[in-house]
Write a structure and sequence with these properties.
Number of strands: 65
Structural class: alpha+beta
Shape: elongated
Strand content: 35-45%
Strand order of the largest sheet: 1-30-57-56-55
Largest sheet: 5 strands, antiparallel
Oligomer: single chain
Radius of gyration: 64 Å
Length: 949
C-alpha cells in the first residue's frame, strides 16, 4: 500500500514538473517577434545558417540564395550554380558560402559583390552539400560535406581525411577546430591535418552533435539532436541536466547558440525557440502560438546586442530578447483587447473585452474568472476587494467568490470619497456605493444627471470631477455629496487663455489636471485655474493628452495622440523624456491606461492583450542603435546601380562621374530591427539640418559638380542623438568642364573676343565714317541752309535796301522836285519882285521891303541844311558816292559835287539849273569843266559814268 502511495505521489510530482516544464515560468509572457515571410523577402523557403559576426550586416544561407540584411534593407545574392546555399561564414571582407557541389566566397569589389569559386581549384568533385564552414588563424578555412573536409589556405584547396571518412559535425571551440565523424570520434586540426583526440574526451557517442559551445567558466556544452545537452570535463561527457530535458528531446534540438549574460538559445525542430539562462531556467519560449511563423527552426544565432535571429523552415524571425517589452495574451487565441490590469492577492488580473483572466506569478497560463465573460471596463482594488466594472454589471471579488453588486449595465469606474462612501460612474449617470461591515452596496440613483460618467476623479478638496468626452466637464462639490446629493456644476468651457478645454481630466498631486489648446491647468474647485508651465516644458499642449499618471516616485507616464512615453524625474527635479514607440499606436484608442503592479512591473493594456515592462529596466535603459550608411545608389535602388556597400566606414569618400547627380543614400541602424523606431536627419554642405524622418533613404537630386559634405545623424526612441555618417562626395566635372576643355574655351573665347573686338572696331570705324559723312552732309546741309539763309537774309536785306533805296530815291526825287519847285517858286517870286520894283521905282519903302523879300528868297534857295540833308540821303542810297568821289577826284569843287550828284540822279540840265539857281548855260559850262577834271574822253557819257561810279 505504501509502495502504491509512493508511486502515486511520484507520478503526481512528475506530472506537476512536466506541466512546469511544458510551459515554463515565462511561457505566457511572450518575447516580441518580428517575422519576415519568404514572400515578403522573395526568397526560398528554408534558411539553413545565419552569420551575425558583422556589426552592420546579417547573412542568411537560404534556399533562394545568400541574403544580406543591414537593419533596413534586404538584398539577395544568387548562388553561382543557382542551388541551395547551406552554409555561410563572414571573415574580414570575404563571405564564404557552401552550396550543393560548390563552395567559394563573395568579395565586394568596387560597388558590386563578385563571386570567387574555390571548388574550381579542386580536382576532387565527388561531394554534395557543404554543411559547415569554419575559419582558423589567418586565411585558413574549412568546408564540411558529409563525406569530405576541404581546406583552403588562401592559395590552394586541399581535401583532408579523418576517421571513418563520413562526418557529422565541424565546429570551432575557442581556438580549436573540432571534427566529429559518423562513429562519434572527435578530431582536432593540428599542423595541416586532423588528429584524433585521445582520452575520455576523444569520443562522443551520445548522439549526433549540432553545436559545441564555449559556456561560462570554461565549460564546454555539446548539444545533440535527439539526446539533449552534455558538458565536458576531464572524464568525458556528462548530461547537462535541466528541467526541460524531456521537452528538448521530444522536440529535437536542431541548432544552438550562446550569448554571455543572455543565455543559451536552442532551436527545435517542432516547437520553436527556447532560451535558458545561467541558472538553467527557461526565460523565453517562442513558437507558432507565440509569434513565430512556424515551429521548425533550422538555424539560430544571437546578435551582437543579445537578440536572436531564427531561420525557420518557412521564413525568418527576429526575437527581441533585449527588448524591455514582454507581451501577454491572457485569453490566448481570442487575442482580446486589454482594458485594465491589477495585482491582487499575489495574482495578476487582466480585464479584456472577453472577460477577466487571472494567474499566479509562477503559473503558466491565465484562467477565466467565471461569471465575468464579456466586456470589462475597469479593475480596481478598494477596501482589499477587487471591484470589476463590467458592461453586464458591477462585481466584487474577494479572492474566493464573485459577488454581483448590480446587474445594471455599464459601470465605468469607482472613486472612494470616505471610508464608508464611494461614487461610481455608469452609462446613465452617478451612483453612490456604501461600505458597511466589510460589504459594498449600491444605493439607488437619486440624481437627474443623465450623462455617461466614464472619467471620474477627485481633487485635493475632495470635490468630484466628471468628464464626458462630448458633453463637457462637471463637478460635484464636497458639501453636495456629503449631503448625499448628486447636484452637479458645469465647469467653464473656456480656459483662462481663451481657448476651450479638452473634455478630459487627470489626477494630479496638486489637484485635477486639465488641458486647453494652449496650456495645462490645475484646479481644486472648477472655478480657479493655475497654469502648469512646468509640464509645458515637456509636453506640447497643442497635442491632446490621452493618459497621464504619476507613479508615486515623480515619474510621469503619458500618452498623447502623437506619442507614448515616460517623463523620468532626476535629482534636480528635472525630467528626461523617453519615448515608448514600440507600444504607441497599440494602446486601445480612447482607453489608454497604465497599471503599476508588483515587483516594479508596469503593464499597459493593448489592442491585443497586454505588455509587461520592468520599471527599473525602463528607467535605466537608454539603448542606442548604431547607425551607418548601408548603400549608395545613383538611380532607383536596383542592384546594378549601387555605388557603395556597407564597410563600416565612419567617413565615406566617393568620386563619381559628372552625370551621377541623383543619388540615393540608404541608412540603417545596425542589423537589429530596433531601428524601426529610429529617425534620421541630414544636411548638405553645412546648411540647415533636415527635419527628423523615419525615411531611411536620403534622396540627393541634381548635385552640382564639385565636392559636397553630407552629415547624417540619427535619433533613437529615447531622444538621444548621434552623428552616424559623414560623406564626402566629389562629383567630377563633365568633359566640357575639363582643363583641356577650359583651355579650348579660352582659345575659342579669345578668338571670339578678337573677332568681336575686330568686328566692333570695324563697325566703329564704319560708324565713325558714317557719322563723319553724315556730319559732313549735315554740315553741307547746314552750310547750304546757312548760305541759303544768308542769301535769303542778303536777299531780304537787299530787298530792304532796295526798298530803302527806292524809298530814298523817292525821297531824293521828292526832295529834288521839292527843291526844284521851291526854287522855281522862289524864282517866280523874285521875278514878280523884280516886276514890282520896276513898276514902283518910287516907292522906297516898298522897294526896301521887296528887296528884303528878295534877299530872304535868295537865302532860302542857298540854304545848306537842305543840301546836307540831301547829301546824307543820297550817300545812303548810292553807297558813299561822295566819299568815293572825293577820294577819286579830290580837286572837285562843291559846285562840282552838286553837279555830279544831280547828274547821278539823271536830272535834266534845266532841272539842275533850277536847283542850283543858275542859268542853263552855266549848267552846260559846268558840265564841260567837270568832264575835264575827271579826264573823260568825248565818247564817255558823263551821266552814265556817274551812274556806274
Amino acid at each position: 500500500m505504501r509502495a502504491v502511495k509512493h508511486w502515486i505521489i511520484l507520478i503526481l510530482m512528475v506530472c506537476l514538473q512536466t506541466k512546469s516544464i511544458l510551459f515554463g515560468q515565462y511561457a505566457e509572457e511572450m518575447v516580441s517577434v518580428i517575422n519576415y515571410s519568404k514572400n515578403e523577402l522573395n526568397i526560398g523557403q528554408q534558411t539553413w545558417q545565419i552569420e551575425t559576426k558583422d556589426k552592420n550586416v546579417t547573412y542568411f544561407a537560404n534556399n533562394g540564395g545568400l541574403l544580406l540584411y543591414d537593419g533596413k534593407n534586404w538584398e539577395k545574392l544568387n548562388s553561382p550554380n543557382q542551388t541551395i546555399i547551406r552554409s555561410v561564414k563572414k571573415e574580414e571582407d570575404r563571405i564564404y558560402i557552401g552550396t550543393q557541389g560548390e563552395f567559394g566566397y563573395f568579395l565586394l569589389k568596387g560597388h558590386k559583390y563578385q563571386y570567387i569559386s574555390l571548388s574550381k581549384l579542386l580536382a576532387f568533385k565527388k561531394y554534395n552539400d557543404i554543411w559547415h564552414i569554419e575559419t582558423y588563424g589567418q586565411n585558413e578555412v574549412f568546408f564540411r560535406a558529409d563525406e569530405s573536409i576541404f581546406y583552403f589556405d588562401g592559395k590552394k584547396v586541399l581535401r583532408l581525411e579523418a576517421g571513418s571518412g563520413k562526418y557529422n559535425y565541424l565546429g570551432k571551440v575557442g581556438d580549436k577546430i573540432i571534427l566529429q565523424d559518423s562513429e562519434g570520434f572527435l578530431f582536432e586540426y593540428i599542423r595541416g591535418g586532423f588528429q584524433k583526440i585521445q582520452g575520455p574526451s576523444g569520443r562522443f557517442d551520445k548522439g549526433r552533435i549540432v553545436s559545441i559551445l564555449s559556456y561560462e567558466k570554461d565549460t564546454v556544452l555539446v548539444a545533440t539532436i535527439y539526446d539533449g545537452i552534455f558538458y565536458k570535463d576531464e572524464n568525458g561527457f556528462h548530461p547537462w541536466k535541466t528541467k526541460y530535458d524531456n521537452i528538448l528531446k521530444k522536440y529535437n534540438i536542431y541548432c544552438a547558440d550562446y550569448f554571455p549574460g543572455k543565455g543559451l538559445g536552442l532551436g527545435t525542430s517542432y516547437n520553436g525557440v527556447y532560451v535558458i539562462d545561467q541558472n538553467r531556467n527557461l526565460i523565453a519560449h517562442s513558437n507558432k502560438s507565440k509569434g513565430l511563423q512556424n515551429n521548425s527552426v533550422l538555424s539560430l544565432r544571437f546578435t551582437l546586442s543579445g537578440d536572436i535571429w531564427a531561420g525557420l523552415d518557412n521564413g525568418v524571425s527576429y526575437l527581441q530578447m533585449s527588448s524591455q517589452y514582454r507581451y501577454v495574451s491572457p485569453d490566448e487565441d481570442l487575442e482580446g483587447t486589454g482594458y485594465s490590469a491589477c495585482f491582487y492577492k499575489n495574482k495578476y488580473f487582466f480585464g479584456t473585452n472577453t472577460g477577466v483572466y487571472f494567474r499566479n506569478e509562477t503559473e503558466t497560463k491565465s484562467k477565466l474568472l467565471a461569471g465575468t465573460e464579456g466586456q470589462v471596463w475597469h479593475l480596481q482594488i478598494l477596501k482589499d476587494k477587487l471591484l470589476i466594472n463590467h458592461h453586464n454589471g458591477l462585481f466584487v471579488y474577494d479572492g474566493q467568490q464573485l459577488i454581483t453588486l448590480s446587474k445594471k449595465n455599464g459601470w465605468w469606474k469607482i472613486v472612494a470619497l470616505t471610508d464608508s462612501l464611494a461614487i461610481a460612474g455608469n452609462y446613465d449617470g452617478l451612483y453612490y456605493l456604501d461600505y458597511k461591515n466589510g460589504n459594498f452596496s449600491v444605493r439607488e440613483k437619486k440624481s437627474a444627471f443623465q450623462e455617461s460618467c466614464r472619467f471620474i476623479e477627485t481633487d485635493l478638496q475632495k470635490n468630484v470631477w466628471i468628464a464626458h468626452p462630448y458633453r463637457g466637464i462637471y463637478t460635484i462639490e464636497r458639501k453636495d455629496w456629503e449631503q448625499k446629493s448628486t447636484n452637479v456644476n458645469v465647469v467653464t468651457e473656456t480656459s483662462p487663455d481663451g481657448t476651450p478645454f479638452y473634455f478630459s481630466i487627470f489626477p494630479h498631486k496638486k489637484g485635477v489636471l486639465l488641458q486647453s489648446k494652449k496650456g495645462f491647468y490645475l484646479s481644486n474647485d472648477g472655478k480657479t485655474f493655475v497654469r502648469d508651465t512646468f509640464l509645458e516644458r515637456y509636453l506640447d499642449p497643442t497635442i491632446e493628452l490621452r493618459m497621464y499618471k504619476n507613479d508615486g516616485e515623480g515619474n510621469v507616464w503619458y500618452s498623447t495622440t502623437n506619442e507614448t512615453g515616460l517623463l523620468i524625474k532626476n535629482k534636480n527635479l528635472q525630467y528626461r523624456k523617453k519615448w515608448l514607440n514600440e507600444i504607441h499606436g497599440r494602446l486601445p484608442e480612447g482607453f489608454q491606461s497604465v497599471a503599476h503592479l508588483s515587483n516594479q512591473k508596469i503593464i499597459f493594456p493593448l489592442d491585443k492583450g497586454f505588455v509587461f515592462l520592468d520599471k527599473n529596466q525602463v528607467l535605466q535603459s537608454d539603448k542606442f542603435v548604431d547607425g551607418f550608411v548601408s548603400k549608395i545608389t545613383y538611380s532607383l535602388p536596383l542592384a546594378d546601380s549601387s555605388l557603395y556597400y556597407t564597410k563600416s566606414d565612419s567617413v565615406i569618400s566617393l568620386s563619381l562621374p559628372y552625370d551621377f547627380t541623383n543619388l540615393f543614400v540608404f541608412l540603417s541602424g545596425t542589423h537589429s530591427p530596433h531601428s524601426e523606431f529610429v529617425t534620421y536627419s541630414y544636411r548638405i554642405d553645412n546648411n540647415q539640418w533636415s527635419s527628423w524622418s523615419k525615411d531611411h533613404v536620403i534622396r540627393l537630386y541634381t548635385l552640382s559638380s564639385g565636392t559636397h559634405e553630407i552629415q547624417v545623424r540619427m535619433m533613437n526612441e529615447n531622444g538621444s542623438v548621434r552623428q552616424t555618417g559623414y560623406l564626402m562626395i566629389k562629383i567630377s566635372y563633365p568633359w566640357y568642364r575639363s582643363p583641356f576643355a577650359f583651355f579650348m574655351y579660352f582659345v575659342f573665347l579669345s578668338f571670339i573676343i578678337y573677332r568681336y573686338v575686330k568686328y566692333i572696331r570695324e563697325n566703329h570705324r564704319k560708324e565713325v565714317l558714317m557719322i563723319e559723312s553724315a556730319k559732313a552732309l549735315q554740315e553741307q546741309k547746314h552750310l547750304a541752309e546757312k548760305e541759303h539763309t544768308q542769301n535769303e537774309i542778303i536777299r531780304l536785306q537787299n530787298e530792304k535796301l532796295t526798298d530803302e533805296i527806292t524809298f530814298k530815291n523817292q525821297e531824293l526825287a521828292s526832295f529834288t522836285y521839292h527843291l526844284v519847285s521851291k526854287n522855281e517858286l522862289i524864282q517866280g517870286i523874285n521875278d514878280e519882285i523884280t516886276k514890282l520894283e520896276k513898276k514902283y521905282p518910287d516907292h522906297k519903302n516898298l522897294l526896301k521891303d521887296l528887296r528884303n523879300i528878295h534877299r530872304l528868297a535868295e537865302q532860302n534857295v542857298n540854304a545848306d541844311e537842305d543840301w546836307e540833308k540831301f547829301i546824307s540821303n543820297f550817300d545812303q542810297v548810292h553807297s558813299e558816292f561822295f566819299k568815293r568821289l572825293t577820294e577819286t577826284y579830290p580837286d572837285l569843287s562843291p559846285s562840282d559835287y552838286k553837279l555830279c550828284t544831280y547828274l547821278r540822279m539823271n536830272l535834266t540840265s534845266k532841272e539842275i539849273a533850277s536847283i542850283m539857281n543858275i542859268s542853263l548855260r552855266s549848267v552846260e559850262t559846268n558840265r564841260y569843266r567837270l568832264r575835264k577834271k575827271m579826264q573823260l574822253d568825248t565818247d564817255t557819257n558823263l551821266v552814265q559814268f556817274l551812274i556806274n561810279f
